Automatic annotation (TrEMBL):
Pfam family, one: Sod_Cu
Protein EC: 1.15.1.1
Domain of life per record: Eukaryota
Enzyme class: oxidoreductase
Species in which this protein is naturally found: Drosophila guanche (Fruit fly)
Name listed for the protein in its UniProt record: Superoxide dismutase [Cu-Zn]
Co-factor remark: Binds 1 copper ion per subunit.
Catalytic activity line of the entry: 2 superoxide + 2 H(+) = H2O2 + O2
Amino acid sequence: MAEIIGRAVVVTGSADDLELGANDQSLIDGNSGERIACGIIARSAGIMKNFRICSCDGVSLWDERNRPLAGKERSQKL
């Protein structure tokens, strides 16, 4: 599993022909068609296991947008 974490994945409209096709596009991208979706494979915590809390001041990452970047007001309750 560790060898795939952080890798990119692209879903295309057709299967890759492994550069064996007679089409000029085959040498570029395997003639696999348009890109439909893409993403990066990442690890995830279990359900309700990732609290997204900053270890420096205890502010949840979801609440950071409502807080100043530094100073005593950052760790005060809103």
